[in-house]
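#struct-queue
[09:14] JT: dropping the first one here, sequence first, then the structure tokens:
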Amino acid sequence: MHDLEAVVDAASLDRFTLFAMSQGGAVAIAFAARHPDRVDRLVLHGSYARGWLNRDLTPSQKEEEKLLMNTMKVGWGQENPAFRQVFATQLFPGASAEKLHALEEQMFLSTSPENAVRLEGEMHRVDVRQFAPKVKASTLIFHSRQDAAVPFEEGVYLASLVPSAQFFPLESKNHLLAGEEPAWLEFQKIFRTFLST
């Protein structure tokens, strides 16, 4: 959140619309709650208020969380993309093999194995439930119904915490929307309408 504050100050933004997706939503929520005078509108996609370790997990889900973290520790930096493909497929299950490979390659180039594990661990521990009810900005929340990376129920739960939130489910299994899917067109249409009102 402090990084976001620094960017906003450097850009001399007084009042603006803030868009965030996935784990960026937690940062945006904390920022909007802390700076109600600066955030006019808040738009979130695939976001959540609580990471894995702050949810009521079944024993199987606890094992899954450990397995994902260990998979990342062991395989992120390897030349063999199989390990990263687990994560790419969670984010973009409806993608072509070519798009999945591009995403996997981007993951490989964008961060070291150590940072990937640290970032993932922080995402699993995030908890902004105390900030969400303090958001004053008009808020729009999107979530894909079959999102494999962040459960749909977490998007519904997040929307229940933000007082002014409008929630729109998207008919997609992708955490990252693809330009050719109908959900992307719906997302754009609703987003633009929200900004113009």
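[09:21] JT: and here's the second one, same format:
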Amino acid sequence: MTKEEFISSGLLELYATGIASPEETQIVQDHLARFPELKEELNEIEMSLENYALSQSVQPAPSVKEKLFNELFVADDKKAINEAPVVSINKKYPVPLFYKSIAAAVFILLIGSMVLNYFYFNKYHKTQNALDVAQQQLQQKEKSNEAMTHDLNVVTNKYAMPVVLNGTPHAPDALAKIFWMKNTGQVYIDPTNLPKVPQGMQYQLWGIVDGKPVSGGMIETSKGIYHIQKMKSFGKVEAFAITLEKAGGSPTPTMDQMIVSAKM
């Protein structure tokens, strides 16, 4: 049994409450010797049980003590069985073994209930955490699938005209691809092969329309996740270019920071 399997088995909880069987006690002691770090886990369980017991304790009303003593020890001399003497509550008498046994049984049941509650609460907590992780992973996969479907729809669109933007002397190995929709003028960009963006900077797309640069918007490259993105529509365009600008963009392109470009 590995350390993780042993922690999940619930044997530490049984050992902490003193109701583990001799076999279970031996298993726990063997694992404590094998994995010294389990002692910290055991200490946490004992502390949790103590806190739980304190939080669940209820202070009885003062009348309960008097009533309990009356029921247990005060007898009417006329109704006493076998002529039992009248017992005064002002004198101290030992508690009968029968009631001690009942108290011990109730205590054991209470501790057992606490252990089971603690054990199943841990099981529920771990299961809930695993479920949350699985749901997050599923949501991430769904988002990834949606992005891939969107990219595929753009690439396979019959009106999409691909335009490759090659690197400039500032970034000779850079590459980007434009998908220009001939029927609508919509522009999509695939920035996958652009260099990593320096901190505080952002890529900006430009279209040369009637000889003047027009911003096509900022390209999203956060967290290194690049997908085909819809940009501003230009209509008739003569060329495309991408520059590296300060985050948020610039009203005019910084020519010495042109990364890729292409003529139509």
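[09:30] RK: nice, looked through the second one.
[09:31] RK: The chain has six helices and eight strands.
[09:31] JT: good to know. The radius of gyration is 38 Å.
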